[in-house]
Design brief:
alpha/beta; 4 helices; 15% strand; 4-stranded mixed beta sheet; globular; 4 strands; 122 residues
Length: 122
């Protein structure tokens, strides 16, 4: 299993590593035109991950239980993080395309929650 971060500053990345108890890999800006499969195949990526205005956690090759634990731990410490797991389809997408799609989905669900009322959990 691998956990990738985008939009987190160096101190936040260290906090992620601490709360998850595992390595968190930063995806630097130079990877934005790479296919996600190329990114996850790298043993190491050099650079900072605080280049994006939004925060993303991308989880690769994790079980449902591992994903649940990661989401719970990160949500306790950080707000407004967009989470994604890799899929056969997303692995073929360029990172920039994936991030734009994740932002669109996040905005759609936020708007849906507001229409249903803040008292209803979606």
């Amino acid at each position: 299993m691998k956990v990738y971060a985008i939009g987190f500053n160096p101190q936040e990345v260290e906090e992620l590593k601490k709360i998850l108890g595992m390595e968190v890999l930063c995806i630097p800006e130079y990877c934005r035109d790479w296919a996600l499969a190329s990114i996850v195949s790298q043993e190491k990526l050099e650079g900072r991950c605080d280049w994006h205005f939004r925060k993303f956690i991308i989880i690769h090759e994790a079980t449902n239980e591992e994903i649940k634990k990661i989401l719970e731990a990160v949500k306790r410490k950080f707000e407004n993080v967009i989470f994604a797991t890799t899929t056969p389809t997303s692995l073929t997408w360029r990172l920039e395309h994936l991030l734009n799609e994740l932002i669109r989905e996040d905005e759609y669900f936020k708007n849906l929650r507001m229409r249903r009322g803040p008292y209803l959990e979606l």
